[in-house]
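sanity check this fold:
=====
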Amino acid sequence: AAQQTKVSNLLLSQFKPEKCSLIRPDWVHVSQCKVYHRFFILTLTARLTVSPSSSQFFEGDFVSLSCEEDDSSAGWTLRRNTSTRQRTQCRDGWGKPANNYCNISYFALLDSGVYWCESREGPISNMVNLTVTGGSVILQSPVLPVMEGDDVTLLCKTKTTPSNLPAAFYKDGSLIRKQPTGHMTIQHVSRSDEGLYKCDISGHGESPSSWITVTGDTLTCLCFCSFQHSQCDDNLMTVFALF
């Protein structure tokens, strides 16, 4: 039986990796497919950005979320899943929309969850896991995947004291190093740096853990053909970004 997947009419070109996203139009049959490298979506996409740029927040923080898009007519909607409700959108009991922004004036513990942008036309943006803590220490780390070879700085901070206190940093439960000023820079990150990070400030406590994803300078995208084509056509295919 023919395999099934989702396809969309796309024009593909070399493009920035962060523009590569999952396309989700109607179901159709699939025939022969190929694997393409360095091909990225040149159609309407959005990227969820978080300000301040962090995946962890203190309870009571102000947070602004936005859907950065290529075309304002695409109709992107910011949604989230939390422990209590699924697929709710900004202003549906949380957040205040303003243009392409969703402002949360008081980030509460129940606001912890997965956030993303979604278009009525099908595509979705990157998904971001945000954690709100009632504790006194957070780890500020990259929200989006970081590129191999880039430098990444982690900041361990407390809610009430200056953010330059000595801190210990951990990856996958093991101590990496202790830093005298509360921040640690990982130079020229590689795939081996991917993992679960947290920090600890003596006398103040430990932060929650956050996952840091490292991606290569290109993404591998899988091309799926429509059932009319025996081979992939640059004008009729879909792409799945593999992070």
Remarks:
- Residues 176 and 229 are 52 Å apart (CA to CA).
